[in-house]
Structure formats: structure tokens, C-alpha cells
């Protein structure tokens, strides 16, 4: 994977899931990415900037008006440098701000200035997550080309059970890699994914047959995505028990 030197911005907000981002930062640093963490003031109640500074070797930005760092106008310089931004965990508050053009802290200001791919992982109490205003804001962000990672379901920190859990660190890193690890040389290509044992003869430029073993298909998600680089992992995983998987590109 070719991620060496890629600039990744991690935006961390005031959620109990913030601690997981230390692992995400560490995993990306081990892959030799240049990782910059921006925290909201409230996020610093959950995890300290020193943790991220130690792991990434870069100053963790919190205050827009802090003059003690390397970039000239930090939010703009960093935004220009970024290859991808992941906001995780994304609080209901920051989702609302980004969806409505509010830039009143270092994180929202920098994200607003970024032209690269922006990925957002909502994490919150299940009633907050299903609140129609939060859902509307997420739809709005999607319409503005943000990729929204669906939260997991399960027991939440508040002991409620439901949607709202931040996905595992590996899943978050997977979303980042899908954006920065491969050339977009299949961009614009139409991809049809079919499942089933039928083998029709169709006039196609490329036909790939994946060996029909469920476990193998699951394990091969990474390789598969490297072949069909724009294919969404979810599409593949939904087909994990398919007897036979064909991918056809033109
Ligand atoms: C213990 C605790 C856990 C919280 N967890 C979350 C959470 O997971 N998601 C969320 O949206 N808000 C959560 N909040 C509320 C946010 O911290 C609060 O809305 C805050 O204003 C968010 O600020 P920020 O968006 O600037 O980081 C939590 C608050 C506390 C005290």
C-alpha cells in the first residue's frame, strides 16, 4: 500500500469514543502517514492532546488562535496539505455545525477549508443519533460529498442499547486507506456486482471470478478493493455468503 507521506487529518470531538482515536493515529503512523490531529476543546476532557502529539510527532491543534505552531495560517495550510480528513468520533454538535456552515473552532474551521475527501463517523447515544435533526444534518453532509460511516449497534457507554457506537479502529482506518492507498484509475467506470452460480456469457471487457468460499471472500475484502478500487466494502460484505461472486467492469 502506498500511503507513505500522505497527510491525514483526524478530527476528534467530545465523545466517550475519543480514546479509540489514539489507536487509529498509531496505526496510521506505523504506515508512515503524516497524521495531524485536531481536537475540539470538549474532546480534551476525554483524551489529552499530549497522547496524540506523542503518537504522531505533530502538534495537536485545539485553539484556532494559538500562535505556537509551525503553519502560517494553520487551518488553511493544513487544509491544503490534507489528502483525507476523518472526523471520528463526530459529536451531534460538530455534525450540526458542519452541516450548517458554522466554523467556530479549529476543527470546524479547518474542515470547512479542506477540499479533499471528508469522512465522518457519528458516535453518540442512540436517541441522539436517531433524532431527526441529526439525521437531517447527516443527509445534508452526504449531499455535500461527505462520506458518512454508519455507526455500529450494541451497548453504548450510557448503557443504552442501539445504534450509535463508533466502529472499530480497523474499520475507520479501512475507510482512510480506501481513499488514499490506491490510484483512482478506475474512477468513472461502471461496476456491476452479481452473486450466484449462473455463468452467462456477456460481452464485457473484464470479468473476474472470485472463488466461491464465504470465508475467503470475507478475508479478501482488502485485495478485492485493490482490484476494484471504487467498490464499496459494504457491497462486498453483504455478499459474503454468495455461492459465487462476479465482478464485471467496463
Ligand atoms: C461523558 C460524556 C460523554 C459524551 N458522549 C457524547 C457522544 O458520544 N456523542 C455526542 O455527540 N456527544 C457526547 N457528549 C456530549 C458532548 O460532549 C457535548 O455535546 C459537547 O458540546 C460536544 O462538543 P464538541 O462537539 O465541540 O466536541 C458526551 C458528554 C459527556 C459528559
Mind explaining what this structure looks like?
The two termini are 25 Å apart. The chain has helices spanning 20-30, 49-56, 74-81, 92-99, 106-113, 126-130, 132-143, 169-180, 214-219, 221-227, 233-238, and strands at 7-12, 34-39, 84-90, 117-122, 147-148, 152-155, 161-165, 191-195, 206-210, 245-249. Strand 6 and strand 7 form a beta hairpin. The protein has two domains: 7-180, 3-Layer(aba) Sandwich (Rossmann fold), CATH 3.40.50.1950; 191-249, no CATH class. Helix 1 (20-30) crosses helix 8. The longest helix is centred in the middle third of the chain and has 12 residues, at 132-143. The protein has a five-stranded parallel sheet, sandwiched between helices. By secondary structure, it is of the alpha/beta class. The protein is built from eleven helices and ten strands. The structure holds flavin mononucleotide (FMN). Flavin mononucleotide binds next to helix 4.
Structural class: alpha/beta
In angstroms, what is the radius of gyration? Answer: 19 Å
- What is the CATH superfamily label of the largest domain? Flavin prenyltransferase-like
Low-confidence stretches: 196-245
Silhouette? globular
Number of helices: 11
Proportion of residues in β-strands: 15-25%
For the biggest sheet, the summary is: 5 strands, parallel
| Helical percentage | 25-40%
Kindly give the count of domains: 2
Total E-strand runs: 10
Mean pLDDT, all residues = 81
Amino acid at each position: 500500500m502506498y500511503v507513505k507521506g500522505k497527510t491525514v487529518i483526524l478530527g476528534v470531538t467530545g465523545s466517550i469514543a475519543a480514546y479509540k482515536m489514539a489507536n487509529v493515529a498509531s496505526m496510521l503512523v506505523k504506515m508512515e502517514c503524516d497524521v495531524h490531529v485536531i481536537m475540539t476543546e470538549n474532546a480534551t476532557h476525554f483524551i489529552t492532546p499530549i497522547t496524540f502529539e506523542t503518537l504522531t510527532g505533530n502538534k495537536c491543534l485545539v485553539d484556532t488562535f494559538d500562535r505556537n505552531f509551525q503553519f502560517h495560517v494553520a487551518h488553511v495550510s493544513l487544509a491544503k496539505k490534507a489528502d483525507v480528513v476523518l472526523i471520528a468520533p463526530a459529536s451531534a454538535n460538530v455534525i450540526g455545525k458542519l452541516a450548517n456552515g458554522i466554523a467556530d473552532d479549529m476543527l470546524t474551521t479547518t474542515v470547512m477549508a479542506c477540499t479533499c475527501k471528508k469522512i465522518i463517523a457519528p458516535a453518540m447515544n442512540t436517541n441522539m443519533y436517531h433524532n431527526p435533526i441529526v439525521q437531517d444534518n447527516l443527509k445534508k453532509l452526504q449531499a455535500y460529498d461527505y462520506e458518512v460511516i454508519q455507526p455500529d449497534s450494541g451497548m453504548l457507554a450510557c448503557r443504552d442499547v442501539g445504534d450509535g457506537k463508533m466502529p472499530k479502529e480497523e474499520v475507520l482506518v479501512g475507510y482512510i486507506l480506501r481513499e488514499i492507498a490506491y490510484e483512482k484509475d478506475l474512477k468513472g467506470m461502471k461496476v456491476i456486482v452479481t452473486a450466484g452460480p449462473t455463468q452467462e456469457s456477456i460481452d464485457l471487457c473484464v470479468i473476474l471470478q472470485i472463488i466461491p468460499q464465504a470465508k475467503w471472500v470475507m478475508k479478501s475484502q482488502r485485495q478485492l478493493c485493490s482490484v476494484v478500487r471504487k467498490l464499496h466494502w459494504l457491497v462486498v460484505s453483504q455478499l459474503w455468503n454468495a455461492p459465487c461472486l462476479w465482478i464485471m467492469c467496463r
